[in-house]
Amino acid sequence: MPELPEVETTLRGIEPWLTQQTIDKLTIRQASLRWPVTSGLSNLVEGQTILAVRRRAKYLIIQLEHGSMLVHLGMSGSLRVVEPETELRKHDHIEMRMRNGAVLRYHDPRRFGCWLWSEGEHRQLSGLGPEPLSTGFDAERLYQLSRKRKVAVKPFIMDNNTVVGVGNIYASEALFRSGIRPGRSAGNISLKRYQVLTDHIKTVLQAAIVQGGTTLRDFVNGNGEPGYFQQTLAVYGRADQPCVSCGTLLKELRLGQRSSVFCPRCQR
DNA sequence: ACACTAACCTGCAAGC
DNA sequence: TGCTTGCAGGTTAGTG
């Protein structure tokens, strides 16, 4: 479900309900996520006030007076602010009730996400590349990092060391808009083409955020509303369908166990 | 350092 | 109808 635009959309949906509010009760119904939810977490956070909620890569950071919680949505996670009496769904693993009555629910069927506590730096955040929408991410970086690399460009731009927040959907879309085949070696792409790719990564992510993210199955923002970017997808999920630009049937291959759809005519 | 695979887990759709 | 298979938005740990 969540790539960077979906996480950003979630952040914007929940943040106004949480900032400056005090945590009344934290309930853990299923602690077995990607890593076990920190034991004793409820006692650590109840009574603390949330100073800020922010995003780094696809992580959400809930900053408290002392320490912070690091939340990742994995493949199937979502966060919603609901009315206190809202009926529990299967896979609602964690619930955080605020003193103002707002209730944040963490829902994650596949449990690839995480909800961790740290009083200092979270180790998951070290070694991450730049934010894709920041000036720290540019063509020069892609070009330099890719020299002599044989890895295909698609997994290269999906590598969190290269740049964060580019997942399978938006990597596929940005490569299509750039006319670059996903299987081309990263080291075999010119600075000029990386400039085009960089621009498209930024614009596709920005456009997806504006439209509230992509809803494939059940993604909803922090207020339960779907995203609309899936109507804009040109290649993701469209194998064997005609290219929106030239009509050639789109092809699919697997790179790093991820399906990669591209136009064999428009992308070289 | 790099390239590549398997693994974590549930739900759903397609195929038989 | 029911069973089996494969695939799904991410990331890490392990292999060679």
Please provide a brief summary of the model:
The chain is α+β, with helices and mostly antiparallel strands and 268 residues long.
Account of the protein in words:
The protein is α+β, with helices and mostly antiparallel strands. It folds into 2 domains: 4-125, N-terminal domain of MutM-like DNA repair proteins; 139-262, Orthogonal Bundle (Helicase, Ruva Protein, domain 3). It is built from 6 helices and 10 strands. The protein has helices at residues 4-18, 41-45, 139-146, 153-158, 168-178, 191-210, and strands spanning 23-28, 50-56, 59-64, 68-72, 78-82, 92-98, 103-107, 114-118, 251-255, 258-262. A 4-stranded antiparallel β-sheet has the order 1-6-7-5. It has a 4-stranded antiparallel β-sheet with strand order 2-3-4-8, with helices on one face. Strands 9-10 form a two-stranded antiparallel sheet. Helix 1 packs across helix 6. The chain is elongated and about 55 Å long. The structure holds a DNA duplex (16 and 16 nucleotides).
Helix content: 10-25%
- Please outline the major beta sheet: 4 strands, antiparallel
Task: Calculate Rg over CA atoms.
Answer: 20 Å
Percent of residues in β-strands: 15-25%
Please state the average pLDDT score. 95
Strand order of the largest sheet: 1-6-7-5
Number of domains: 2
Find the count of extended strands (DSSP E, 2+ residues).
10
**Secondary-structure element sequence?**
HEHEEEEEEEHHHHEE
- Shape, per Cα inertia axes: elongated
pLDDT < 50 runs, ≥5 residues: none
CATH architecture of the largest domain: Orthogonal Bundle
| Cα separation of the termini | 29 Å
Here the CATH topology of the largest domain equals Helicase, Ruva Protein, domain 3
CATH class of the largest domain: Mainly Alpha
Can you count the helices?
A: 6
Structural class: alpha+beta
